[in-house]
Amino acid sequence: MLPITLADQQPYPLTRLGGPEAGFVLTTANRRTPELRYRVPEHRSGDPRRWLKVVLRARVELAGDHGGRGFGAISLLTSNYSSATAEFGPVRDSNGAKKVRWTGAALHGGREVVTARQRFRIAFTNYARVQGSKPGVHTLAFRLRIDDGLRVRRVTIEPGSGLWLTRQPPQALAVASTKVIPSRPGVGQPFKIRFSIKNNGVIDSGPVSFDPLLPPAFKLRARLPQIKRIAPGRTDAADLDVVAESAGSYRIETLASSRVGQALAIARPTVVATSPTPERTARTFATLEGRNDEGGTGPIRVVLIGVAVVGVLGIGVWRRARQAR
Amino acid sequence: MTYLRHGAVGLLAIAVALAWAPGAGAVAPPHDSNLSYQRLSVGGDYFLNYDGARDGRSATRDWPVTMIFWDDASVNRVKSFYDDQRGYNRRGGYMYEGYRRRVNGVYIRPRFDGDKGKKTACDSAAQDNHFRVYGDYTDRFSDPRYGDFVVATTHIDRGEGTEPSDPCYGMKYFGFSEDVEDDMADLAKSSYTVREDHKKLYNKESLYLDTSGVDKHYWFNNGYATIVKMP
């Protein structure tokens, strides 16, 4: 059978791809389905960009005595690369009751379901692997994997499983800009880092949250910012309110996350000293023991040197006073 | 007078010697690399290049990520592979890997995956190999090029025993991530395709002894993770 060409932005279930009307059945003895073929056409300039998603719909039936151990997995393979895998296995809940948990990892998402049933349904979507979505002819197949002795009676791949072309990119968020306000804040002076985030997708972003990696010298002054939503094609900004306890040039990474993807923003604020403070010298020791020694004048050293100087001066003053008598 | 002059000079000499003694005034270890978000390819999930405490702070980092299991990997698969037969028959203590967590379609805090990891029995030198493996709430991350993947940190534990009769009893220290990465890579070669020191994760730590904490840590990592393909 000739491979089906994926031309339209619509679902391509198994039946359209040449699969059986009733779907595929996998068992312990038959762990892999026959391959179906599809063609991804070349992208023509001027056409909107499209991405290939995979749809995994399956019914799993564990054996009545599944052993209470081990785990299994159903994978949807595109050109022999796993594009969506649902892993399942027995667990116990907080009361000690026997349950079954299945999980499906997907780009910026996924599914996690815990059920008391031995027969359960799996459903989730993911973006196809790069290797299976380039222009050309590819294969689609399903595989059952069983590890550590889990007993599986049957897995039915539903006919609704398959492929789906979409205009929504896998990571729709992008950093438009980062700005430090004011541009050169002082030590102890509150300042803002403004992150502008763009939604390059065709669906609403939903809430966008921010996770900064702050250096030890930085403190948050307010709760972490959040953008309620960014409409498709629009840009919105959020401010991180911080204060720095020491001067220097810093690198602050912040991960913006939403249901349509993630974007990593990097800001490089330079915090200037508001009053003259001794600069710490660069690390000079690189030996095994010496990496803890920054080679500069730490607080303990300052105190010890101070004690010595005051002691010597005090003795001098005492001597002069005694000679004067 | 002579006695006083000698005393003053002695006081000054002791103070200066103490002030310049190695480690004086040390507060936090000066790492070679920053805690940072990494991903395997464009469009993939982000993860932190070190595990650590459940706060994502640079000062509380524990060990660098040294191994990546990819293609169709999961926390369960990795732990199932490094099993009793391969010598990994004990559990360690919890640490956490930063990631994002989604509930009802919204990303919320905290975003950490905790794992005790698995470790070998102590050898004649009172040390064991310990790894922790992390994914997100689905027990793995996702990447358009690398598929389902998990990340692992590795290190040696030495001298954790409390009684002289305990095979783990001895001088206590931890570290040498790179060495355990090599040992685990060698084990994986029997079953999977392994590319040693392949993926740069910007977490290089040249060998040094960190005494800033309660226990001695020997930081040692070349900054490149070994990747293991689990089809």
What does this structure look like?
The complex is a heterodimer of chains A (325) and B (231). With 325 residues, chain A is mainly β. Chain A has one helix at residues 299-324, and strands at 4-5, 11-13, 24-26, 36-40, 51-62, 71-78, 81-92, 98-106, 109-115, 119-127, 136-147, 152-157, 162-166, 173-181, 191-199, 208-213, 218-220, 226-227, 235-244, 248-249, 252-258, 261-267, 270-271. In chain A, a hairpin with a 2-residue loop joins strand 6 and strand 7. Chain B has 231 residues and is of the alpha+beta class. At the A-B interface, strand 6, strand 7, strand 8, strand 9 and strand 16 of A face helix 1, helix 2, strand 8, strand 12 and strand 16 of B.
Please state the CA-atom Rg of chain A, rounded to the nearest Å. 31 Å
Q: What are the secondary-structure elements of chain A, in order, as H or E? A: EEEEEEEEEEEEEEEEEEEEEEEH
Greatest chain-chain contact:
A-B, 73 and 72 residues
Low-confidence parts of chain A = 276-299
Shape designation of chain B: globular
Q: What is the percentage of strand-forming residues of chain A?
A: over 45%
Helical proportion of chain A, percent range = under 10%
Q: Helical element count of chain B?
A: 3
Q: Based on DSSP secondary structure assignment, what is the total number of beta strands of chain A?
A: 23
The helix-and-strand class of chain A reads: mainly beta
* Strands side by side in the biggest sheet of chain A: 1-4-11-6-7-8-9
Derived structural class of chain B: alpha+beta
Please describe the biggest sheet of chain A, giving its number of strands, its sense, and whether it closes into a barrel: 7 strands, mixed
What is the residue-mean pLDDT of chain B, rounded to a whole number?
85
Oligomer state of the chains in this structure = heterodimer
Series of secondary-structure elements of chain B, N-terminal to C-terminal: HEEEEHEEEEEEEEEEHEEEE
Radius of gyration of chain B: 21 Å
What does the largest sheet of chain B look like? 12 strands, mixed
Range of strand content of chain B: 35-45%
